[in-house]
UniProtKB/TrEMBL annotation:
The keyword Lyase applies. The lineage of its organism: Bacteria, Pseudomonadati, Pseudomonadota, Gammaproteobacteria, Oceanospirillales. The chain holds residues 177 to 398 of 398 of the full protein. This is Coenzyme A biosynthesis bifunctional protein CoaBC. Residues 15-222 are annotated as: Phosphopantothenate--cysteine ligase. Pathway: Cofactor biosynthesis; coenzyme A biosynthesis; CoA from (R)-pantothenate: step 3/5; Cofactor biosynthesis; coenzyme A biosynthesis; CoA from (R)-pantothenate: step 2/5. Keywords: Decarboxylase, Flavoprotein, FMN, Ligase, Lyase, Magnesium, Metal-binding, Multifunctional enzyme. CTP binds at D104, K114, P130, D131, I132, I133, F148, K162, K166. Residues 10-218 form the DNA/pantothenate metabolism flavoprotein C-terminal domain.
Amino acid sequence: AADVFDYDLLTGRHVVITAGPTREPIDPVRYLTNKSSGKMGFALAAAAAEAGARVTLIAGPVVLDTPNRVERINVVRAEDMYQASLDAVEKGCDIFIATAAVADYRPTVTADHKIKKSTEEIHLTLVKNPDIIAAVADHANRPFTVGFAAETQDVIEYAQGKLKNKNLDMIATNDVSGTDVGFNSDNNALTVIWPNGHKVLPLASKTQIAKQLIELIAIRQG
Ligand code: CTP
Ligand code: CA
């Protein structure tokens, strides 16, 4: 439990965490994005640092203070987050946790100038962004890889599918159809799944949940 948190649990380990949304520019003043406060990723970064890890936090555009002893890399687009993540894995890390709400698609072109209002309808063509966590899990220098899945229905089934298809070691999942969990909330409840087991982390503050998840990751990573 969090009250007996081991402050040496991750000493000597390098943990890389993605957090927040990404922002995909349409023109100089407009963008596509996802709903994400970044709070869960920042809480995990703080908990990992408290557990003695060296922590790199790859953050999309969020207004949150960088936790103590955490190295923060700010990114905007999914492609920038992909580059920063693969660079970190290339250099070597032990644990990769993807909490970011990455935009699945980006506009095929970004206009150089503000798009002016003209016709009643305009069409935006989108292209798929690279899957960051899948690329990390496929890397020759593969860290222990942990994903997140926020779902509004069939939560466990979708999460199990992602665990398998993306070749992850663990996935933390939450039901965001309710009101007091996930997203902008300060609380969260997670079901954590790995290839042959699972654990429920009941509703608690994101700080508490982060400590519990960090403990679980440290134990399973071995
Ligand atoms: N993820 C990622 N790169 C992407 C999309 C998702 O690294 N381009 C990561 C997220 O950070 C999360 C996990 O993959 O840890 C699951 O994200 P999610 O959006 O639930 O899954 P998708 O594979 O994008 O599937 P869908 O949105 O269709 O449910
Ligand atoms: Ca997605």
